[in-house]
Amino acid sequence: MTFVDDSLLTETPEGPALLGSRCTNCSAHTFPRQAGCPRCTGSAMEDVPLARTGRLWTWTVQGFRPKPPYTGTETHEPYGVGYVELADQLLVESRLTESDPDRLRIGLPMELVIRSFRDDDGGGGPTRTFAFAPVTGADR
Fold it and tell me: CA-to-CA distance for 129 and 111, rounded, in angstroms?
C-alpha cells in the first residue's frame, strides 16, 4: 500500500495526523509544510502534527471527473470537497467522505480518515489518501 504523498502525514498516539508547519515567531500554521511563513515572512518554521478534528467551513459536491493524475478509480462518482477549519490552526482543503448535500452543513464536526484513492498504483497495491468524515453521532 502506498500513499499519495507520504510527507503529508505523521503518526500520533491518536492516529494519523496531517503534518504541517508552525512559525515559531508568529505561530501561523501552514499545510502542507513550508520553509517560510506566509504571515510574517520569517523562516523559523517547525514541523507539527495538525489537529485531527475540526468543523466543516464550506463545501461542494464535485460531479465531474478530475483531470489526471487526480482521476482516482476507473469509475467516477460525485464526491464532496470542502474546507475543514482546524481550531486555532488553519483551513485545510480536503476530499470529504460524504457527498450527500442533505448530510453536510457548515459547522459539521469532522475528523481525519485515511481512504483508498486508487485500487492499483502500478506496483500492485492500493494508493491511499486523506479525507475528512463527519464525526460519528455528530448533530446533523
Answer: 14
